[in-house]
Design goal:
Layout (H helix, E strand, L loop, with lengths): L21 E3 L21 E3 L21 E3 L7 E3 L11 E3 L7 E3 L1
Parallel strand pairs: 1-2, 2-3, 3-5, 4-6
Length: 107
């Protein structure tokens, strides 16, 4: 039940296979991506983080995801995007940002 709610939704990331290609984390309450938290998952191609509570993206949050093709950030609370937020996403083809509160792109 909710009494054992895990405060760290990424606690199990290190237990995932480094060859994992798809990660579904949508419809949670994730408010922040800690720098380097996704580093063990360098083979990710699809990352679904829609319908969470992300309010900012750290510069370089996805720097180890050079193979990522699709990133879903729809339905979060993003208000601005910092330069470097998507650094390292050399192969990114699809980026979903609809349903946020974007008002500016920041330096």
């Amino acid at each position: 039940g909710r009494s054992r709610e895990n405060k760290d939704p990424f606690r199990g990331v290190s237990a995932l296979s480094p060859s994992e290609q798809t990660l579904f984390l949508q419809d949670n309450s994730i408010a922040r991506l800690e720098p380097g938290i996704l580093a063990p998952l360098a083979s990710l191609r699809h990352l679904y983080l829609h319908n969470n509570s992300l309010h900012a993206l750290e510069s370089g949050a996805f720097r180890t995801q050079s193979r990522l093709l699709e990133l879903a950030l729809t339905g979060n609370r993003l208000r601005g995007l910092r330069v470097g937020a998507f650094a390292g996403l050399a192969q990114l083809r699809v980026l979903y940002l609809a349903g946020n509160q974007l008002v500016q792109l920041l330096d």
